[in-house]
Amino acid sequence: MAFPHWRVGVGNDLHRLAPGRKLILGGVHVPFDQGPVGHSDGDVLAHAICDALLGAARLGDIGRHFPNTAPKWKNASSLLFLRHVRELLRDGSYQIVNLDATVGLERPKLAPYIEAMEKKVANALGLKRDQVSVKAKSGEGLDAVGRGEAIRADAVALIQSQP
Ligand SMILES: [Zn+2]
Prior knowledge:
Elements: E1 6-19, E2 24-25, E3 28-29, E4 34-36, H1 44-56, H2 62-65, H3 78-91, E5 94-104, H4 114-125, E6 132-137, H5 143-146, E7 150-161
Parallel strand pairs: 5-6
Antiparallel strand pairs: 1-4, 1-7, 2-3, 5-7
Helix pairs in contact: 1-3, 3-4
């Protein structure tokens, strides 16, 4: 293709919340009395971004690369997933243009942590801060997120192939 080869990908993730679990989002610990249940650290933001990037590069999904049956990934920091996806993209000669993500969570308020999340995600992927956008949204008291039973994240990624 003569013009830049852009590709877009979408990802989402949902985890059940349970008492006594650590709440980690984009590698940032958010103090709260509940956290996601999951094989890894249950970082929905990192997981949704991984899926968006893998999808954009047509490399499958997070379950294929990080099976939850593999002891290697048990309680693993999901920043490792992001770093691994970064390598997969590099192997495919792809560059990330930008990422946008929304975290759905009823409580606590995430505003004080957003900047730190953007920084950690950008670092793990070797990006500049302005290439990563993280937003937060409550569930308005509806669905599993709104009832405070679950945490969810949605992400979109744009990548381009290197010349
Ligand atoms: Zn997940």
